[in-house]
Amino acid sequence: MSDVSAASPATSVAATSAAVPPMVLAEQVSKSFGSNEVLKSISLSVAKGEVMCLVGPSGSGKSTFLRCINHLEVVNGGRLFVDGELVGYTQKGDTLYELQPKQAAAQRREIGMVFQKFNLFPHMTALENVIEAPIHVKKQPKALAIARGKELLDRVGLTDRMGHYPAHLSGGQQQRVAIARALAMDPKLMLFDEPTSALDPELVGEVLDVMKGLAQSGMTMIVVTHEMGFAREVADSLVFMDGGVVVETGVPREIIANPQHARTKAFLSKVL
Ligand code: ADP
Ligand code: MG
């Protein structure tokens, strides 16, 4: 992970784009809701295969940042790239044009997102939830989608729950279905927004274990979480946000052991 906010924008952009493009690159990204500036010149990059944990107090802009990456919000300033492509816009000369809905949808299909609330379709079984988008959005043949869906449910430890409806699954099982459902679209990037915050404490571990396996398989992930054990053990980088700015970034173990900023210290003292 490289925090480009400290360097001058001109150097950092040149340095980053010369090599393989990072999976995510934010250059001075800002986002406001009315007069409320929620993201204030966020600059960061996430390399391919990197797992970044994004932490910070409630209201600091973490969800908004993920939502901008995933086309659920549009940035007001700066530029955001996923795998070298500008998110939501195409650039001609110095002018940015908004992408057509179809082009934006194509970009978005390559990004998986898992929310605090699992958002499964209640009237569909676990397997039906997982194969829905591959069949209807990706136009995969049903037999292929089923075979792949079973494989994914197997991978998240739900071999014997494929025919169950969400109401008959625990929160941890539902969240694992949600992860399998996101993976079924073969994303190149996975975003997790507090995936374990709605779970009973005894169910948190099974979801984190699945995420750890995914990280070890090489998936690029941005994880908003308060689980500092996960950050320390699994993440390559940690970004601490507060009040819409990146306050501190670095190696999780180092930041957790030795935070440099008073705000990081105050936050960590509450979650550790
Ligand atoms: P976090 O995920 O770090 O808790 P959020 O990104 O959810 O923070 O929110 C940051 C700020 O943006 C909050 O002040 C919140 O009220 C505001 N906000 C988020 N989404 C919207 C929205 N759709 N409309 C207006 N304000 C919003
Ligand atoms: Mg949030």
Question: How would you sum up this structure in a few lines?
Answer:
This protein is α/β, with parallel strands linked by helices.
Structural overview:
The chain is an alpha/beta fold. The protein has one domain: P-loop containing nucleotide triphosphate hydrolases (Rossmann fold). Helices cover 38% and strands 25% of the residues. The strands form three sheets. A six-stranded mixed sheet has the order 8-9-10-3-11-12, with helices on both faces. A hairpin with a 2-residue loop joins β11 and β12 (245-250). The model is unreliable at 1-17 (pLDDT under 50). Bound molecules: adenosine-5'-diphosphate and magnesium ion (MG). Its EC number is 7.4.2.1. This is ABC-type polar-amino-acid transporter. Residues 24-268 form the ABC transporter domain. It catalyses: a polar amino acid(out) + ATP + H2O = a polar amino acid(in) + ADP + phosphate + H(+). One of its GO terms (molecular function) is ATP hydrolysis activity.
Q: So, CATH architecture?
A: 3-Layer(aba) Sandwich
Small molecules bound in the structure, each named once = adenosine-5'-diphosphate, magnesium ion
Distance between the termini: 23 Å
**What's the rounded overall pLDDT mean?**
93
Strand content: 25-35%
Largest sheet: 6 strands, mixed
Keywords:
272 residues; alpha/beta; Rossmann fold; six-stranded mixed beta sheet; four-stranded antiparallel beta sheet; 10 helices; 38% helix; globular; binds adenosine-5'-diphosphate; binds magnesium ion
